Amino acid sequence: MMEPVVADRVSTEMPTSTLADLNLDLAGRTSGKVREAWPLAEGRRLLVTTDRLSAFDRIIGTVPHKGQVLNQLAAWWFEQTADLVANHVVDVPDPNVLIAVDARPLPVEVVVRGRLTGSTSTSVLPRYEAGERMLYGYELPDGLQAHGPFPEPLITPTTKAEKGEHDEPITCDEVVTRGLVEVELWERIKTVALEVFRRGTEVAADAGFVLADTKYEFGLAPDGELLLIDEVHTPDSSRYWAMDSLDERLAAGKGPESYDKEPVRLALGAAGFRGEGEPPELPQETWELASARYVELFESLTGTTFEPGARPIEERIATNLAPHLPGGTTS
Q: What is the tens place of the pLDDT at every residue in 85-130?
């Protein structure tokens, strides 16, 4: 459950500016829903995490502090799991910036599910409730509770869809039979994914959260080393629930209390928005609540106090990147 002091502090410190975009005098820019990326010299890649929030496959707006939380929390998790698998982190020169090894991404997203939950077409709960028991190559037993744990965490891979398309769920066997990943490497990835997820669930539980499921991306370094890339155990790539309210809510037939962009999704749903047309104008308190949840999760997991980066964000990034980008400017 959110501590009021956290929400009050974040609301009091809420900045008037957010990072919606960033223009750098660099070639080769690629854009995602949340991150902007540029190739750098010497096999490096620059990743900037913005404050953008997406829902229903649309960019809805920006959440104060979101980009900083995602970037710094991912960096923290990469450090916490470095003994299990190498990762792509080279440097974190700014609260919103990561310099990484320019790895070759593998064409599979590795989703690990610890709980029977979700609502999308790739989720298991709707299909299980419809009577399916063979899902992602696993035969599930009868009697599982909605949002309850699986007997063991499941690896449920998906393909990486082209921009604007949807990921396709596949089985672990299909990863190999389709030639997406070579068999020995895939076995290594499965082992690592379960080890990282186990570490994540233990750390989350100590902080008062259930890590219900998550998505990992892997790549190969230029020398062929397996790397954990992109982000890890952030509230954008993972589903975190408040542990102290979970049993009571499930007993009452309610869904878990989520620590991610759920306040925005709920507000959009209440306004009748499902992804078509112009998104509705949401009250400021909705964005503040979402921001407070991101910040509380960060502080609870890391055991540190969140320190907002200096504003204006673009000027700060330009200053911090200067040693890494000779001649580079922001505009």
A: 999 999 999 999 999 999 999 999 999 999 999 876 667 999 999 9
> In terms of C-beta density within 10 A (0-12 exposed, 13-18 middle, 19 or more buried), how is residue 248 classed?
exposed
What pLDDT digit, counting tens, does each position of 162-218 carry? 665 677 899 999 999 999 999 999 999 999 999 999 999 999 999 999 999 999 999
> Distance of alpha carbon 202 from its chain centroid, rounded?
18
Separation between Cα atoms, residue 124 and residue 144, nearest integer Å:
11
Bridge partner list, 269: none
Q: State whether residue 320 is helix, strand or coil.
A: helix
The domain locations on the chain are 4-321
What are 35-59's pLDDT values in tens digits? 999 999 999 999 999 999 998 878 9
- Please tell us whether the domain made up of 4-321 is placed in CATH 3.30.470.20: yes
Burial track 40-73 (b if 16+ CB lie within 10 A, e otherwise): beeebbbbbbbbbbebeebebbbbbbbbbbbbbb
Q: Is 168 in contact with 174 (CB distance < 8 Å)?
A: no
Does residue 218 contact residue 106 with C-beta atoms inside 8 Å? Answer: yes
Looking at residue 14, its pLDDT comes to 54
pTM: 0.92
* 132, HSE (Cβ side, Cα atoms, 13 Å): 13
Prior bond of 312 cis (ω within 30°): yes
Give the Cβ contact number of residue 30 at 10 Å: 12
Q: How many CB atoms are located within 10 Å of the residue 330 CB?
A: 16
- Give the H or E element holding residue 205: helix 183-206
DSSP per-residue letters across 256-314: P-BSSSHHHHHHHHHTT-SSSSSPPPPPHHHHHHHHHHHHHHHHHHH-S---PPPSSHH
Tokens of 286: 């909705």
Of residues 34, 35, 95, 36, the one with CA closest to residue 61:
34
The token duo for 141 is 């037993």
